[in-house]
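User: Can you help me understand a structure? I only have the sequence.
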Amino acid sequence: MFGFSKIILPIGSKNKTGTEGIRVSLHDLLAEQKNAPEVFASSRKMRSTAAGNAHSPFKGRGMEFDEVREYHAGDDLRSLDWKVTARLGEPFTKLFHEERERPFFILLDMRSQMRFGTKKAFKSVIAAKVTSLIMWAAKNSGDKVGGLLLSDNRDVLMKPAKQRKNMISFLQSVADASASPSGVESKNTLSGALSELKRVAHLGGVVFVISDFHDFNAETQKQLSLLTSHNDLVCVFIEDRLEENPPPAGIYRINDGGSSSMNINAADKKWAENYKKIFAKRRDAVKSFCNKTGSFFIVIHTDDDYVSLLREGIHKKRRKGYATAL
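Assistant: Let's start by predicting it. Here is the structure, written out as tokens:
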């Protein structure tokens, strides 16, 4: 199938190997550590206070059982410990304390449709850097982080952990995926990856989905909805300027990522209108889903300052009151 997302266009300056902006190296991903403190800037302040007194960009982290004590008037009846109550003949209630760890999980889309860019870099490169940035930010705040790499050929899963070596191994897989040849359109779907993620993502965690959501459909929404029932969801929508608006009038050669190609006439007004509507419909659908579920929706273009946009997108939502107090 031909698609405008497969246009071969220059994306700017190249390094000696001619791959800058097209591929991402492990060195590039490790370099994101320097930007990590900016992303969750309030994390250190948040951790310096007792549970219940600080505000987080995200929902509460979940509760852990602490102890049992006698029931007091005004206690939540849902917290009654019925076993202890039955054994002692007097009402006892369970006490909980907030979990100190909030697991992060990142689903990174590196399928062939992400290999497109007309400005600074391919969508896949920006998505990979955003993934690395979030991982290092989570590690800096003392939280566990896991990842699921969705590519054309295979999926790579890293269960939530704090070990640096686990993160480096996962990021190496990301770099390898960006360098692998783009072949036939992937049969792997975003909904399938979300279903797998739901199986391993911890309750009370934060789930980032970094993609262009090109196959966003009813099944994708279903899987995302299941994740939002027990986790914070952050949809990071990666796009290129040329996807948002048709190119100037003219004849353009496109290909399908392989040897087949064809010309399109961007001067055709009807074609240009349909092109713009198709993209806007997809982005609006993802945004609408996030608004309905109280999830985070962040748009990042391939030529944007992704560090600032990620930080501002998270804390802007907090200021609007969507997040709950820790």
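Now, to help you interpret it: The two ends are 48 Å apart (CA to CA). Strands lie at 63-70, 92-98, 104-109, 145-150, 155-161, 206-211, 232-239, 251-255, 261-265, 296-301. Let me know which part you'd like to focus on.
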